[in-house]
Amino acid sequence: MNLAPIVLFTYNRPWHTRQTIEALQKNHFASESELFILSDAPKTEKDEPRVREVREYLKTIKGFKKIEIIERDKNWGLANNIIDGVTKIVNEYGKIIVLEDDLVTSPYFLKYMNEGLEIYKEEERVASIHGYVPPLPNPEKLPETFFLKGADCWGWATWKRAWDYFEPDGKKLFTLLKERGECYKFDYNGSYPYTKMLKDQIKGKNNSWAIRWYASAFLNDMLTLYPRKSLVKNIGLDYSGTHCGSTKIFNVEITYEDIILKKVPIEVNKEALKQFEIYYKSSLSGSKTFLKKILSILKGRIS
To answer: Rounded to two decimals, what is the model's pTM?
Structure first.
């Protein structure tokens, strides 16, 4: 199998970066994979020591076929760094696996990603392969892998043919959603405030690349493959990031079992969609203050 390059985006969190790398090193196919690391430059003088510490650690990494570290000489910000990095590398290699510095992976993450990329490479409706799945209420009712509409951002892989649909203009995306009357569906049938996130991006309240990636795939009627058991755990929602607050609603235990991939129907899995809706509604239920907090966390986390 021709393995996809891994692209990791880092900034100023040495401990999180180390956890992410150490988990990735334990992956099947790690030693055969090329790893590109894009290290953003400090935004302020206060950030300089931690960025420097991350960069010093990055130079000690081993365990991959090839490691290339790209140190930005100015602060790009997470969104611009990811958009530029993904675009350049996927255009060169045709496919890509994307991680950020707070995503701990299962030893089977790379295997799942590469097999998914291979199985669905000719399927134009498939936007991406995703590694994270939230703690759903009844996962035993789901197949080992399933599709949902759109795209996602916590440990994912895609092809050039799909990333070419990425639209950076949030206003254009929102206009199309509104014209087509699809905001309710875009919000997982009203269970999650994705439309608000997109409108906030347009207003400059966040600079989310991920909401634009989701909207780009959604509007082109493309789907993403998810595993029933999560291969990714986010360890960054702990007040440590530049943009993120703290919450436990996304906590999962990653699987240490191999996921057997076989081609499944390229259509929205209705049971999975229902479970995502139940999970979102239960997670965001309660006071407006709590909902505001979650929105603030997420707008930053995916910026």
So the answer is: 0.93
